[in-house]
Structure formats: structure tokens, C-alpha cells
Specification:
The chain has 8 helices and 28 strands. By secondary structure, it is mostly beta strands. Among the domains are: about 35-155, no CATH class; about 245-320, Ubiquitin-like (UB roll) (Roll), CATH 3.10.20; about 395-640, membrane protein fhac: a member of the omp85/tpsb transporter family (Porin). β26 (about 600-615) and β27 (about 615-625) form a beta hairpin.
Length: about 650
């Protein structure tokens, strides 16, 4: 059948026509013609001068005397006479159901070809009538072309029938919304009697009554009355809209062990007292499933406590709430890494998750306990709290860190991509860090106590979260921080990211990225090494090792800086199937001053391979530094999910 205005499938169209209540005016319609019998033998072929042979009998060759028994042979077929009536959709549907087409590569005997020709003739008549050609006739015949039997379906579409009157009875009960319902149906007088348009009009009408606030409307099946003498038709649809209503209360099934009506209301995009809007119910169901806590989510309208309200009945069945996850990886400059986590996604209902996570790696060890509440007092708001202890050993520094942090944010995801996202956070950090004195290269160890309030705001105008092909993104981060190391001092970390995507032609996208950052209020040496800016790596300047770009100490290790500038451009080319290639060129540098002066940029170039899976592109990038510093590797490899930016 027709769904949300889309075309009826080929098999569905025949079922639609078979079930369609089509009436005929008996006073003007001649007696119906006898139905085609697919089992009856074909009549003699008038243009060939040869009868259809019976299986197992002797049949003459065309224009000659007796010939040997006809066995199986390959055949060809074609349709004649469609002309303007043969729309692309009609031909597509015929190809999907044609038995001649489906079997023309296999040998067939005369009886099989006979049966297939008659079945396809009846099919073509049905499809033509679906487009308004109610007098259509199709006559099968057999020809011989270059010694090969060819079935010809000779079509005579006849005149196209048009509607003289379209009546939507009962729509006046919708009051001032009646015009919107008529417009949604769309089918009007003088339109062809087209089954697709009528089914589409019915589907749009059913959708519109829900959008206009009628939760319990009933719509009858369209009734088409054919007048064969006048070659016209009338169309009647009965509508009982009922009363328009406003949202009442949300009800949930008792003891569902997931969450109650109050939390469902926080997730919903409608509130009690707002006009009923049926698409909001489908949106709510998707959001409930997206929580990952339910295996079944049923959402339906039911009569409210008063005649003007409609309550929403929600039935939930829980899904398994626990998850165990693991990850093994290796990164240039980051070393080998193993991560494992255990999560109970609803330990503190509603949607209060607890995650215990550990990381064991050659350069990083971490243990963290995280509390996370999704949909906190509103859709897609996430409240997070975390306690973590970590040991990090980088070329730039070594740190033993204990942190307590929390945030409230509005997140985006692949199911509900957001245009605007934001976050507000707070963080307390105690970190013991090792670096070197830049002037001498002598090692030193300092302890920092840091309080920070990181915030962010992002605009996403792209068309896809993981694989954008057009639009742009713009984001900013601001984190005022107070540091205690001997004496207390403050500074502010700021960063801006922008990216743009432009399709050049089918399968080719040009993408570019800019990143700028600054730390104001304190000299570089006073800032904890772990809080400085660094550049280099798969999410930065490809071709270089992780955090390897920028000023270095006497031991040739990076020391970070107070500002950064990065640029990237790449061409995303869909090569073949689900695979693509991505040539790229990146540039960037780290600076000691508070603002980047864009001098001494380091350049990297390379090529990547993309596999476009159902859940996003998997990327493998291989880059090389074009103007490396001493000690830089000549090749760097990066593997991740999603595009580089």
C-alpha cells in the first residue's frame, strides 16, 4: 500500500486494486467483457500463419511443411503500443512482476511461453487501469525474429479516464481546519483516475488529521465510480474527524521497571494543554527506544479525563541494563592501549547510569567511576559526574592526576542531530607533573591544584554527524581556571573550531578545517604541562606524531605552548562501492606567545582510505611530514571511526 506519500509497490498495487471498492454506473456501462483465462491456449497468430503448437505434437515451421516436435527454446519479448501511457513507474512495476522477463534467460516450451504471455498481458492491463486507462486492452502474439520466437504484447491503452467530481464527505465537521484537510488530500476534479495519486491522497489525509489535532478521526476507503460510456469517474471519501483535542496526561504501565510517566513527560516534546500533534508520538517513541533501556515502546492516544483532552498511553518493556565493553588499540605517539568498562545504565532510575572504567597502556593508566543521567529535566540534557585517577607518560610530560568533575550538557547524536549544543562544567584537579626546565633541560616535578569551569557552544549546520557532505560547523570553548602552585594565579583557555563541506560533484566532497587557540593570563612555564596546547596526530596535523609539533626542550621533547593554529583541507572521493580515497593536506604550529603569529607552520600530507559502513565511515589515514623537525617519523598511521573533521 501507499506509505506517507510514497509510491505503491508493484505487488502492493495489484492488491490495492483488488481491494479497491470501485463501483460502476450500470445505466451507462455495457456488459463486462469476459475475464482472461491464463490457462486457455492462445488463438492462432494472425500475422504469422502458424498455430500455437501443443506440447508433444508435430508443428509446422513458419511458412513450411511439417517439422520435428517443438521442444524447449529461449525466447524474446517486447511491448508495443504504450507510447505516452508507458510511464517509467509503470515499466518498473511491470519488470518487477513480469514472468516473461523473469524467465527469458531459461529455455521454455510452447505451453510455458503461452501461459507467461497471457499472465503478462493481464498484468499490463491491470497496471494501465491503475494509471487511469480503464479501456486498456493487451493482445499477446508470437513472431519469429532472426529464427528466435518473440512474444509481442500489443497494448491499446485507450483514453485516460478523469475525475468529474471529488467529494470528501463529513470534512465540514473539522470547522476551520476543513480546508487544510481538503488540501492535504490533493486529488481534485479533472485529475486522472490514478491509483497512486488516490492512495497518496488518502495517506496524506490520514496524516493531516493527526497533525491538525484530531486523534480519533476515522477515514473510509476511497470509492471510485466509473462511467465507461463517458470515460469519466467520481471519487468519494467519508471522513469523521471527531473533535480536536489537546494533550492531557502521560500514562505508563505499572511496574515497567524502566521509568514512570514523569520522566517520559521530560523526554516528550509536548506538554499538557498543547494541541494534539500526532507526529510527536512517533518522535517520543524513537526517543524512548534511543535510551537503550527499553526493548518495547508502544505509544498511543487514548481518551482523556475530559472531552477536549487526549491522554497518551505508554507501554514499556525493559531491555538488559548492563553492558561490558572492551577496546584494544595502538596509536603512533600514544602507544598500546587496553580499555575495559562495566556499565549499569539504570542503576539510579530514571536513566541514572554508573560506569566503572579502566585503561591499561604503555603510556597511560586510568581508573574512573562515572555517574551519568540522560534526559535530565529535558530531552537530550545529560548530567555527568566523575571521579578519576590517572597516570600519563607523554614525551612532553609525566603526570599523576586525581580529578573530580561534573557537567551539564545538551548533546547531539546520530538519531537526533542537533543544530545547537552546549555544555557547562566544573572541575577540581590535583596533579603531580614532571617536565624539564627549558633553559637547562634539567628535570623537575611540581604539584598543581586547579579549579576550572569549562564551557562550550557549538553550531552544526552540516547534513550528517559522522560523514558531512555540505554545510558548516562552528564551535567555541572557554575555560577560566585558577591554579595553585606555590602561589595562586588565574588564566583562561579559549579555542575556536570551524569546518566547512562543499560537494563538487556526485561522490566528491571538498572539506576544510580551521582551529585557533589561546591561553591568556599566565606565562607558559607557570601553566601545568597537561593544560597547555599541543599539536600533531590524527585529530590535529596528520603526518606528525601525537603532540610532537611546536617548541621543544633541550632533550628534543615537545613542551607545548599558549596558542595554536591548525588548518586542514581534504578531498573525499567515493571511489567504488562502499570505499573511498581521501587525499589531505594539513598545517599547524604551537606558539609560546598568547596569540599565534602563523610562523613556522609544519605541513603534513597523505592519503586515506574510507569504508562507508552503516554506522559511519571507518578511516585509515597515512601521512608524512613535509618539513619535519629532528626526530619526527617519516610516516604516521591513524585509524578511527568517522571523518577526521
Amino acid at each position: 500500500m501507499y506509505g506517507r506519500g510514497g509510491p505503491i509497490g508493484a505487488a502492493g498495487l495489484i492488491a490495492f486494486l483488488a481491494a479497491q471498492p470501485v463501483a460502476a454506473q450500470q445505466s451507462v456501462v455495457p456488459a463486462p467483457e469476459p475475464a482472461l483465462d491464463p490457462t486457455a491456449p492462445l488463438a492462432d497468430m494472425p500475422d504469422i500463419g502458424v498455430a500455437w503448437p501443443e506440447l508433444g505434437t508435430e508443428a509446422p515451421e513458419i511458412g513450411q511443411g511439417p517439422a520435428p516436435t517443438i521442444g524447449e527454446t529461449r525466447y524474446a519479448w517486447r511491448i508495443e503500443g504504450l507510447d505516452a501511457a508507458g510511464t517509467p513507474l509503470l515499466r518498473e512495476r511491470f519488470a518487477a512482476l513480469s514472468v516473461l522477463d523473469q524467465n527469458d534467460e531459461e529455455p521454455a516450451n510452447a505451453a510455458q511461453i503461452d501461459r507467461r504471455a497471457r499472465e503478462d498481458a493481464a498484468l499490463l492491463v491491470t497496471l494501465l487501469r491503475a494509471e487511469g486507462y480503464y479501456d486498456a486492452e493487451v493482445e499477446p502474439r508470437l513472431e519469429t525474429v532472426e529464427g528466435r520466437p518473440t512474444v509481442v504484447l500489443g497494448a491499446t491503452p485507450g483514453a485516460i479516464y478523469r475525475l468529474t467530481d471529488v467529494t470528501i464527505a463529513g470534512v465540514e465537521a473539522a470547522g476551520d481546519k476543513a480546508a487544510a484537510l481538503r488540501d492535504a488530500f490533493g486529488v481534485k476534479a479533472q485529475d486522472p483516475v490514478n491509483a497512486d495519486r488516490i492512495a497518496a491522497g488518502e495517506a496524506k489525509l490520514r496524516l493531516e488529521v493527526g497533525e491538525q489535532g484530531f486523534p480519533f478521526a476515522t477515514i473510509g476507503e476511497p470509492m471510485v465510480t466509473i462511467d465507461r460510456e463517458a470515460q469519466t469517474a467520481t471519487l468519494d471519501v467519508n471522513v469523521a474527524p471527531g473533535t480536536s483535542r489537546v494533550f492531557g496526561q502521560i500514562r505508563t504501565n505499572a511496574g515497567n521497571r524502566v521509568f514512570g510517566a514523569e520522566h517520559v513527560q521530560e523526554i516528550a516534546r509536548f506538554s499538557p494543554g498543547q494541541p494534539f500533534y500526532e507526529p510527536a508520538l512517533a518522535d517520543l517513541r524513537r526517543a524512548l527506544v534511543q535510551t537503550g533501556l527499553v526493548s518495547v515502546a508502544e505509544v498511543k492516544p487514548v481518551p482523556g479525563a475530559t472531552p477536549e483532552t487526549v491522554d497518551i498511553d505508554v507501554r514499556l518493556e525493559p531491555a538488559p541494563p548492563r553492558t561490558i565493553a572492551g577496546e584494544i588499540g595502538y596509536g603512533t605517539g600514544e602507544g598500546a592501549r587496553v580499555e575495559a568498562s562495566w556499565t549499569h545504565r539504570n542503576l539510579f532510575p530514571p536513566e541514572g547510569a554508573l560506569t566503572i572504567r579502566t585503561v591499561l597502556g604503555t603510556q597511560e593508566q586510568l581508573g574512573a567511576v562515572t555517574f551519568r543521567r540522560n534526559n535530565f529535566q529535558g530531552r537530550d540534557r545529560v548530567l555527568t559526574g566523575q571521579i578519576a585517577a590517572a597516570h600519563t607518560n607523554r614525551d612532553a610530560y609525566e603526570a599523576n592526576t586525581f580529578s573530580v568533575s561534573g557537567s551539564l550538557e545538551r548533546q547531539t547524536n546520530i538519531f537526533f542531530q542537533k543544530t545547537w549544543t552546549w555544555s557547562l562544567g566544573a572541575e577540581l584537579v590535583a596533579t603531580d607533573e614532571r617536565d624539564v626546565i627549558v633553559s637547562t633541560g634539567e628535570p623537575r616535578r611540581r604539584t598543581f591544584f586547579i579549579a576550572a569551569a569549562p564551557t562550550s557552544l557549538t553550531y552544526d549546520g552540516s547534513d550528517d554527524l559522522l560523514n558531512p557532505s555540505r554545510g558548516f560547523r562552528l564551535g567555541g570553548r572557554f575555560s577560566p581556571e585558577l591554579s595553585l602552585q606555590g602561589a595562586a594565579f588565574g588564566y583562561a583557555r579559549m579555542q575556536m573550531d570551524a569546518s566547512a563541506y562543499t560537494p563538487l560533484r556526485d561522490g566528491v566532497v571538498l572539506a576544510g578545517r580551521v582551529r585557533l587557540g589561546t591561553i591568556l593570563g599566565a606565562p607558559r612555564d607557570a601553566i601545568a604541562p597537561s593544560r597547555r596546547f599541543y599539536a600533531g596526530g590524527g585529530a590535529s596535523v596528520r603526518g606528525y606524531g601525537y603532540q610532537s609539533i611546536g617548541p621543544r626542550d633541550p632533550n628534543n621533547d615537545p613542551i607545548g605552548g599558549r596558542s595554536l593554529a591548525e588548518f586542514a583541507i581534504e578531498g573525499r572521493i567515493k571511489a567504488f562501492g562502499n570505499f573511498g580515497v581521501v587525499p589531505f593536506f594539513d598545517a599547524g604550529n604551537i606558539y609560546t606567545a598568547g596569540f599565534p603569529d602563523f610562523s613556522g607552520l609544519r605541513y603534513g600530507a597523505g592519503v586515506g582510505v574510507r569504508y562507508y559502513s552503516n554506522f559511519g565511515p571507518i578511516r585509515v589515514d597515512v601521512g608524512t611530514p613535509l618539513n619535519p623537525q629532528a626526530g619526527d617519523s617519516r610516516v604516521a598511521v591513524y585509524v578511527s571511526l568517522g571523518q577526521a573533521f
